[in-house]
Amino acid sequence: MPEDFADTRLASVAAAIAEPARARMLCCLMDGHARTSTELAVVGGVSPSTASVHLARLREQHLVQVLAQGKHRYYQLAGTDVAAALEALMRVAGLPRPVFVPTTPERLRRARTCYDHMAGTLAVGMHDYMAQHQWLAPLAQDSGDYQLSTEGAAALEKLGLDVEQAGRARRRFACPCLDWSERRPHLGGALGAALLALLLRQGWVERDLDSRALGITREGQRRFKRVFNLDA
User: Using an 8 Å Cβ cutoff, are 53 and 43 in contact?
Assistant: First the structure.
């Protein structure tokens, strides 16, 4: 029987999900946060080497994808269609959705620097706001980079960010950067660096002398709420 028949493909995907350790890994990833193979090995109750085999099977069936962040590799669900299918199966099985519990100290988790751009819950919130309001759009299919929409460029320029100058930088203009405490993307690239520089210059945030933590000023609390609808 040809392998591309719908029923054969369905059986292959179902078999990949049906193994208990792989099912636990997939359920864990349903919260939208990426995880390492070591973390998923613990979730699945298997050794790291066995987890690698399981994750290779899930990748083969296009159920998970890998995100490279420096020397680290993180796994997340391959897309919203996979999440929707798992959600339906979890409802049939009567299972609650898992909850991600980060262990990062609260001060660093809220706001910190990531190289030359901002990370933490506030940075992830800004990224989500810009994506939801279509300030950011995919640059090209599968490129992973962003471009600014006309509305996004106008909104950031209104805040005081020089979009044209950021675009002249000899580096990626805008891209998702996986946040290590939230395991969801914040904004990286030249645009992310320009945004952090703007927030520092206008006094929304201030650098900590002894760590990567960023303090949120009273002005920042007011403006994060007004501009990005975020409680800082």
Answer: no
**Residue (of 23, 48, 46) closest to 36 by Cα position:** 48
Count of alpha carbons within 13 angstroms of residue 214, beta-carbon side? 28
pLDDT digits (tens, 9 = 90+) for 69-83: 778 899 988 877 787
Cβ atoms 98, 27 nearer than 8 A? yes
The domain ranges of the chain are 6-93, 106-228
Angular region, 203: left φ>0, alpha ψ -120 to 50, beta rest? left
Its pTM stands at 0.69
Q: Which two tokens stand for residue 183?
A: 């395991």
- Tell whether the model's pLDDT for residue 201 goes beyond 60: yes
CA 56 – CA 65 distance, rounded (Å): 10
- Residue 214 CB contacts under 8 Å (≥ 6 apart), including other chains: 111, 112, 113, 118, 120, 205, 206, 207, 208
Q: What is the DSSP letter of 35?
A: B
pLDDT in tens, 33-70: 888 999 999 989 999 999 999 999 999 999 999 988 77
Element (H, E) at 196: helix 189-201
169, amino acid identity = A
Name the architecture of domain 6-93. Answer: Orthogonal Bundle (1.10)
The strand pairing partners of 68, in sequence order, are 73
